[in-house]
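Subject: Predicted fold for MFS transporter, 446 residues

User T.R. writes:
Posting the sequence so we have a shared reference for the thread.
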Amino acid sequence: MYLSTVGRPDPTDPDAGAGAERSRSRRRGWALVGGNVVALGTVSMITDVSSEMVSAVLPMYLVLGLQLSPLAYGVLDGVYTGATALLRIVGGFVADRIQARKLLAGIGYALSAVAKLGLLAAGRSAGAIGLVIAADRLGKGLRTAPRDAMITLSTPAGSLGRAFGVHRAMDGAGAFLGPLVALAVLAAAGGSYDAVFVSSFCVAALGVVVLVLFVRDRPAPARPEAAAVGGSGGRPVLASSRPEPVTVSEALGLFRAPGVRRLLLAAVLLGLATIGDGFVYLLLQRREELSAVWFPLLAVGTSLSYLLLAAPLGVLADRVGRLPVVLGGYLALLGTYLLLPGPVHGWPLLALVLGLYGLFYAATDGVLIALAGPLLPERLRTTGIALVQTGQALAYLLSSVLFGLAWQTWGPATATRVAAACVGAALVGTVLLLAARPTARAGVAG
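User M.O. replies:
I've generated the structure tokens; pasting them so everyone works from the same file.
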């Protein structure tokens, strides 16, 4: 069975009890982050500049400009992430079946780039904007799992936290620069949103070029042995060692693996407890009565925290275990939600919220995928990662709609306190699902 090793410690994993391997992994340090990870990080950095140029101004444009209600914004915000859900699984399975992860990722990056131009035609129509956002997120859904699978397949198991930390740090650099570039474009173009959308497309197209030129897709592992078949003169001839295509039944078999099933349930729980970035920034804007000029800089503060912490937390996850780091990240999210309706005001509130919010992303974004990596066989790595990401995306869609409804019904302060309570409940559920796994320590700690 391809998942028969889930319940046994992985001898290549430093957290599986192999002290010598742990020591060697630490000595090798950053050298274990290969060129492919850096190339993928560069693509993500460029693409995030493009994405954040748009996302930094979109909440302000929709809520303050178009006067959308919190519920309507919640629906669009849910679409922004939830639209990726089904295509993630399809894209992941296709990438594993045809062994063309780079191709699928490239199509996804290109689709998101073209979608930026669609915002020009959408105008002030919320429905049209929703369709364009869905197209952009479909591109993200198509590329994310193949990209993360290429990272896991280019990195030793004991250094996945470090690799994802470096990648997410580069991604965070793009997220940090994106809002600043958007502000510069707005200032140069006299406040024209169309100029931001066109510039965003040009930057995204550059990311596709870097992917094509510098990223390498790891070939699929050959079958362990080649079968001997009859040849001329009675001499055996080795059959082709080309891997057989992944089947639907193999993909469905992921659900039968207890470790994967528990991780998927935990990812859904955590996704249900997470509200969108736009809501956090809108709550801060309302609380502190910030002008529209300063609104995009809230995302810059979060990205700066993320950029500084992603790589160190990835290294920490490899050393102390990935589950504790993920749980610590959601504790930071709990603190963020409790601060929003709390007694703190002014710059201390802004610094604490944005710092903790960046810490949350740095401790969870790549580390959760690193946590999933050792549980998944190589030939189904992309499908498995897509499954976890899809569970979170669907949960996030629901949570965004529910939070928008709660805000509209109970007000922002009560809605945020309820969100904080949901984070606490999700943390308890995650510990119960993932911590009590003594026979699968490699999957939890590693």
